[in-house]
Design brief:
single chain, about 130 residues, Thiol Ester Dehydrase, Chain A, 6-stranded antiparallel beta sheet, about 45% strand
């Protein structure tokens, strides 16, 4: 799982780091750089949404069979605050897994624990033909 995340083109492009991984949980980190900022000089909402999406997806993937993956069906992000520098942390939590669908939520914070955004996600569990999740 760690290797799969580390080789993701988007994760590499944004320089997202996987800090912790366990069943139903993932923690990511991102050192905010100029390339992550919007025209106002603050962390871009798209980057914040991406961190929440990746954290939710990784948390769900921790409970799937090896040849299964999650396809995002829905992502609802609430933007609460922003920043211009430092490191942000995004925690993803598996809420519930059914046979073909899973639910997760996440929270993005700064180094002091200040809440920047939250999200909830729904994902479709995709497997190879004939396999059950």
């Amino acid at each position: 799982m760690r290797a799969r995340i580390a080789t993701s083109p988007l994760v590499k492009l944004l320089e997202i780091r996987l800090m912790e991984l366990r069943e139903g949980y993932a923690q990511l980190a991102l050192e905010v750089k100029e390339k992550h900022l919007n025209s106002l000089g603050t962390l871009h909402g798209g980057v914040m949404a991406t961190l929440n999406d990746v954290a939710c997806g990784v948390a769900i993937n921790t409970v799937l069979i090896p040849r299964a993956t999650i396809l995002s069906l829905d992502l609802r992000v609430e933007f609460i605050d922003t920043l211009s520098q430092g490191t942000v942390f995004c925690e993803g939590f598996l809420t519930q897994k059914k046979q073909w669908v899973a639910f997760a939520h996440s929270r993005l914070t700064d180094e002091k624990g200040r809440l920047l955004s939250t999200a909830s996600a729904t994902g479709f569990i995709k497997t190879l033909k004939g396999e059950r999740p």
